[in-house]
Write a structure and sequence with these properties.
This protein has 329 residues and is an alpha/beta fold. It is built from 11 helices and 12 strands. The structure holds S-adenosylmethionine and iron/sulfur cluster.
């Protein structure tokens, strides 16, 4: 397979986050407005064939890791067969999925059979009433059943993603971390990111504070990243089965090692989560561009991937063009 493309800052770009829908069955306070969002026209969304074609072109360019995301990817009816088709593209080394877990107990086995090997499940609390407040749906037990199903079926590792918010769920940092003594999960604490939906200023807790709280649970030692070369700093408690990850996109950004591209469900290529720049691949697809032409446009976008985001500068905080559910995280 070809070597992954590099950008103008010598970063190897080998990872694509592929959003297959902007719809969701939850309304998390930090991501979506309570009343949901106006539905996009079906024809605005990439079709099954268009998604598989763009995945194939990306993999032929040297992208070797693909993560399926959303909105909630499992609400798309074709989610399983999309995973199957993408998993069978020669050259792909890793297919993973990020989900809120609501439908995971129904899908876990099928996803595993389709070739997905890693799942990240969002879990911001262990308290059902609190889950209902954060996700605005009283469905904690469904998520927990999904997590157990993922573990049973053999996904490894099962990663749990927790967005920490001051006064909302920060009192559960320790309890969530203690899950790693009972299960081989990777529990990852993520700094809240400044999207329009949330009252960022009052809710944000920096990673170093999260780490301080974790040290109350036990002796934390730095741990290997395993196969992952993602943005998390890895730790483990002595005697624990699982690991702890800290992801600090805001306070200590991971831009120098960013290897990511993002494709939105309506076919826009984004080279930076926080940039307003997008490249319209849907338009290219629909006007009959060849695979080579599309690859050339993607390479040109990669070449212009920004060096870093500017979240620490408040002026840029408002410059985020899309909400998180529409980008895919
Ligand atoms: N629906 C799926 C889920 O929730 O896992 C996949 C899409 S969701 C947009 C991907 C990730 O983005 C989730 O882990 C979610 O917690 C995270 N996320 C959404 N809004 C966020 C924000 N304002 N700050 C930090 N993380 C956020
Ligand atoms: Fe839906 Fe995921 Fe956004 Fe929650 S974080 S509203 S589950 S897309």
């Amino acid at each position: 397979m070809p070597a992954p493309p590099t950008d103008s800052f010598h970063r190897k770009i080998d990872y694509l986050r592929l959003s297959i829908t902007d719809r969701c069955n939850l309304r998390c306070v930090y991501c979506m407005p309570e009343d949901g969002v106006p539905k996009c026209e079906h024809s605005d969304m990439l079709s099954y064939e268009e998604i598989v074609r763009l995945a194939r072109i990306s993999i032929s360019m040297g992208i070797s890791k693909v993560r399926i995301t959303g909105g909630e990817p499992l609400v798309r009816k074709e989610a399983l067969s999309l995973c199957e088709s993408i998993a069978s593209v020669p050259g792909l080394r890793s297919l993973s999925l990020t989900t809120n877990g609501i439908l995971l107990s129904d899908f876990a086995e099928g996803l595993f059979r389709a070739g997905v090997r890693r799942v990240n499940i969002s879990l911001d609390t262990l308290k059902p009433e609190r889950f209902a407040q954060i996700a605005r749906k009283d469905l904690f037990s469904r998520v927990w059943a999904g997590i157990m199903a993922a573990q049973r079926v053999g996904f490894s590792p099962v990663k749990l993603n927790t967005v920490i918010m001051a006064g909302v769920n920060d009192d559960e940092i320790e309890d969530l971390a203690r899950l790693t003594f009972r299960f081989p999960f990777h529990v990852r604490f993520i700094e809240l990111m400044p999207f329009e939906q949330c009252d960022y200023q009052s809710l944000f807790i920096p990673a170093f504070e999260i780490l301080d709280r974790l040290r109350r649970v036990g002796r934390l030692v730095e741990s290997s990243a395993g196969e992952s070369n993602g943005p998390a700093l890895h730790y483990a408690f002595k005697g624990a089965m699982g690991k702890i990850g800290i992801i600090s996109p805001v306070s200590d950004h991971f831009c120098p090692s960013c290897n990511r591209l993002r494709l939105t469900a309506d076919g826009k290529l984004r080279t930076c989560l926080f940039s307003v720049d997008e490249t319209d691949l849907r338009e290219l697809l629909r006007r009959g561009a060849s695979d080579g032409e599309i690859a050339a446009v993607m390479l040109a976008a990669i070449n212009k991937k920004p060096e870093k985001h500017h979240l620490s500068n408040p002026v840029f905080r408002k410059c985020i063009s899309r909400p998180m559910f529409s980008i895919g995280g």
